[in-house]
Amino acid sequence: MRRRVKQTRSLEERMAEQAAKLKAMADQLPAGTEREALLKRARIVETGAHLGDWLNSPGLRQSD
Known about the structure:
Layout: H1 11-27, H2 33-55
């Protein structure tokens, strides 16, 4: 049986929080590949967090 969890925050909010955590973790590391990998993951998560805004933008809405 699949366990379901009721989310209290939107996906965008959770993704933005995750991006902030990844950036904070990267700030604690010296320059190098591990830090760059965390920053790359943070950028990817931020992009995902903004996809909803982009998809709902007026420029993408089609007229019927």
